[in-house]
Amino acid sequence: MDCNEARPLLDANADHELTPPQSRDVQRHIESCEACRRESEMVRAMKGAVRSANYYRAPDELRAKIMAALPPTELAAPQGAVRDSEMRPEPRARQRKGWFDWVRLPQLPQLPKGGGFGPLAGEGAGGAMSGGGWHTGAAWRGGLALAFCALVAAGIAVTLHRTGEPMPLVDELVASHVRAQLSGHDIDVVSTDQHTVKPWFNGKLDYAPPVEDLSASGFPLAGGRLDYVGHRRVAVLTYRHAKHVIDVYVFPEDDRAAGKPGAAIVQDGYAVARWRDEGMMWWAITDAAPESLTALQAALTARLHGGEPGAPYSGS
């Protein structure tokens, strides 16, 4: 795959819309092409920023204030006059509702020749606004639209700074978990023996993920697999609990793709837990109750530090 083939697929790849073979081909090209890698990172960053931004709808009071600030003589068209916008059919693209409908103001009548507002209007060539006044409400709406865009951009920056949530990584992990379940090939090495699963990763990764069997705590090890997340290969340990599958993604804690520990969240109906331990960053994902991940984390932490496993977790 070359750049001409890969570039049109970068958006779909960021949205996890490609088939597994297409996704692998695009990822291989991204790894070998610096320009496409930068383009892919820009696409993902933009999608993450938009997804993380808070939705804000301007209150009705703002429209009322704008309307009240306009001179009363400019709000009403002359009696019997037909607005220019009523005579011309609106272009199709303008008929669709957009974000700026709340700032759509009435068409203002054309100002006297010479332009300007208030006492400056019609002062002639020497007037402060002569010859270049605003003749319609388009400039008003344009100015308000620009101001609104600036507010949205500032809101995105503030939101990202405040939350610090690696939402693109969460989306990618959940998508990886779902794809594995749908493919029917969610395990590369099928074994309940940690001494079989752990050496299977040798030579396939640039780190050695800890592997523990948590059967005594109600989370039997089912096996492991390799996956590609955050522009790198990662180890995935698969555990079972009742009729649910729990995928545990293991990153080196100092890897830039590993993310940071934080509170458990629910994304698209899947519980996601994350924590740091033993030099690794752990991400656990399941369609079971979030409490099951809390119990798995406690059991895994106890085993990693040589403690005794607690009572088997019996929740759903």
UniProtKB/TrEMBL annotation:
Q: Which Pfam families match?
A: zf-HC2
Using the record's annotation, list all stretches that form the Putative zinc-finger domain: 3-37
Q: Where is this region: Disordered?
A: 1-26
Name the InterPro entries for this protein: Anti_sigma_zinc_sf (IPR041916), Znf_put (IPR027383)
> Under what name is this protein listed?
Anti-sigma factor
Organism source for this protein? Paraburkholderia hospita
